[in-house]
Every structure is written in C-alpha cells, then in structure tokens.
Amino acid sequence: MESYATERVPRSQRWPAFAILLILTGNVTAMFWFTLGGQIGFLVGWPLMLIPIGYLVIVSTVLGSLIMRIASREGLSLVLLTRGLGFGAKGSAVASFIYGINYIFYFIFEGSIVSHALSQYFGVGQNSITASAIFALVGAAALFFAWRGMHSMNILQRFGMPIFLMLFAVGIFMLSQGHALVGPGQWESLTPSDPTVMWQAFSLVNGQIVFQALLATDYGRFSRPQIGYKGTAGIMFGEMMMIAVVLVLGSFLAFTIYPSITEGDPVLYSTDPGFVFALIMGLLGVIFAIITQIRINVMNLYSGSLAFSNTWDAFARKPIRRNWWMVGLLALGIVLYPVNVLQYTDTFLAVTGIMTNTWIFILLADYFICRKGLKLAPAEKIEYDERVIRDWNPCGMIAMAIAVALGACGLAGLYPIYYASFIAMISGPIIHVLLTALTRGRFYSPKTSRRSDQVLEGETNAN
Question: Does the predicted TM-score (pTM) go above 0.70?
Fold first, then answer.
C-alpha cells in the first residue's frame, strides 16, 4: 500500500502526468457537479452562469498548478507541506483536520445520492434503516478499492470512465423520450429580481476553487519531479474543463426535470442526481448512481484518510495506519447519513471556502512571498520532520484564526454570507506575510532535537 502519508514519495514510485490526470477523472464524474450546475443555473440562468464557471476553471487551474508543482518537487502531501509552510508540526494538524472534514461531507453527499436513487425506484424511505444499510454496503465497496492504494484506484478510474460515459449517453436518450428537453435559451433565473444572485453563485464555486487543487495535489505528489508548471497546469486545466461540461449538463438536467416535479421542493429534487437518474432511467439509473458513487468515494476515502492520519500523528505517539482511518470515515458517514446533507450544500460550500481557501492561500503566500520573495527561509527541501521543526508557527496560526473569525461573522449574519469566503481568503495571507516579516522568519528556524538536548545535558552534568 503506497500511501506515503507521513514521508516523501520516493522517485521509484512516481507516475507520468497522464496517469495522474486519469485518476482525477474520477472526480470529474462526481454527482456533486450535477447538483452544483443545477443550483448555479437556477440562480443566474444562461449565459450568466458561464461567468462563475469560468472563474472556477481559471482560478482552480492556476492554484492547482502552483500547489501541485510544489508537492511534486518535494514529494510531500499537502498536510506535510503545511508543517514547513507557516504552521508547524502540530499547527498543520489543525489545518489537516479541517481538510479532512471536507471529505466527510463529500463522502456522505455521494453516498446519499445512491440511497436517494434507490428510494425513488424501490420506494425505500430515505431516512430508514434500509437506506442506511444500503449506504454502508456501497461505501464498503469504495473502501475495498481505496484500501489497495494508488494502483487500485488507477485501474478503477481507467475502466470506470467509459462505463460512466456510456450510461450517461443512455440517460440523455431516455430523457429525450420522456421529457421535453429544455435548452440553454430557456434557462432563466428563478429569482431574477434578486440583485445578489451572482454573488451567491460565486460563493458556491468559491468553495471549490481551492478544494479541487487540494484533491489534485494529493495525487500530483506522485507525478515525476521534473514536471513543470506547464505540466501541472495542463493536468488541472484538463480536469477543470471536463468539470465545466458536467456543470452545464447538470443545469440542463435540472431545467428539464423541474417542470415535471409536482410534490416536495422542485429545486431540491431537480438538483438531486439520485432522484433525477432513477426517474429518467429506472433501475439502470440506480446502477449508474452506484457505479459513479463508488468511483468518487474511493478518492474521498483516500484523501480524507491522509488528512486525519496526519492530524493523529501530530498529537499521538502511536500512529494509526491510513487504511484504518478510511474505516473510521465509513463508520462516521453511516452515522451521519440520515442528515441528508444535500440540502445544506450552499452553507457547506461557504464554510469550506472560509477555512480551506484561507489555509491554502496562506501556504502559497508563505512559499512565494515569504520564502522566494523575502528570502526568509529556503524555498527547496521544505522540512517536515516533526522531530526537527517547531510544533507551532504562530504566524500561520494567528493569520488563520483571524481570517476564519472574519469569515464566521458572515455566517453569523453580520454581513451577507456570500462575501464571507472572499474576505477570509484575502485577509489570511496578508496577515501571515506581515507577521512573518515582522518576526523576520524566526519561527522557521528548527528546534533543538531531543538528541542534542540529551548530549548537552550530559556534558553539563559531567562538568
């Protein structure tokens, strides 16, 4: 099992760029994108929805190319890079814990879609014990593949993409037979008089601009060290353009299904892929949802386990292997499944935009401004060994705390929530650079090792 959760990826385990992109196609086919595309379409309509989508593609490509290049050069996961880039060994554990929470949400999100598809087709109650059992079984299938590491995931994504494309094409054909297709010319905002809808749409995608870069970096650290920014940008752009297509298709599905929903919340149901594909394709739609969910939840389990294993290792003496963290994520997902997280997508994306975006912008500011620009620390061979680096770097921690607090004010209603993630991710790196410059990079300096302390103590006693 080649996780390298707490060490550098050796050169012998590096992969070509195309293999990394192939694995990332599993993320492209996540049902989440259909939901997000429908929500953006209902907010701003066509063609205005292309503005936030374009923002997502461009910014994610830029951020992802920068972060992935650093990870590839160093051979380190993002949570290990965080140790040296402004947070310290234990400080990085706080950031990685926040990172791991994202994967809990997405794991439950994708698994819930399967249960909703089965509920639609078989009449199984979404909050029933049966639905939770189904969620557990499908999650266990994802666990089987994620347990075996990168090679297993590569095989799954290689054969899963053609199946996804074939079943989706069948679904579109069946949709055209039973419903009047609604083209872009008819995609109009459901609230055209609301002047804030564009900001709401930007808030939704802002919760993804960094997360996609993080996900890509978890696998990009396996790319060959000689890959340049053009190579990492190519990987990110290829992934994000495919995601953009799925977002538009999600809006197409939502607007087509919306008029036929007469019960419940039409917006919620028409943006729920589990309900939509089961309605369109019947049993085949259920199979489609199951296959897609397994592919993406393999990635959610793998990346989530990396984050939580780093958090644990920073505070505990006895490590827990990464694969057992995946078991824990599955168990937690089963417990939280009845909450139906799909209805809280907008709130969650605002929260993750505040926390995750702020974290990564601080890392980039540390690397490119504090290290490369101000020369306050080396920009290569970033130290990550907890026996050497400091436990806490107050510059990153204070900047993160202040920025998140500013964002939380938006969540509390002190200003519009759709500004919150932008305010947090801009203020965090500015504060970090100022603090690091004022302290002249003092907290980059390595702490004295335990062995040196013991030698010094022995010499003192001898004298």
Answer: yes
**DSSP designation for 372:** T
Query: Do 404 and 341 contact (CB within 8 A), yes or no?
Result: no
pLDDT, tens only, 1-25: 455 666 677 777 777 777 777 777 7
Cα–Cα nearest to 212, from 94, 108, 360: 360
Contact (CB, 8 A) for 167 and 140: no
> Within the chain, which residues score under 50 in pLDDT?
1, 449-463
Task: For domain 13-343, give the CATH superfamily.
Answer: Hydantoin permease (1.10.4160.10)
For residue 223, give the 3-state DSSP assignment.
Answer: strand
Whether residue 51 contacts residue 406, with contact meaning beta carbons closer than 8 Å, is answered with no
Contact in structure between 133 and 397 (CB atoms under 8 Å)? no
- CA distances for 305 relative to 4, 65, 169, 323, angstroms: 11, 23, 34, 7
CA 435-403-391 angle, 5° bins: 55
pLDDT of residue 47: 94
Find all residues with CB under 8 Å of 173, minimum gap 6, and list them: none
**CB contact set of 33 (below 8 Å; sequence gap of 6+):** 243, 246, 247, 250
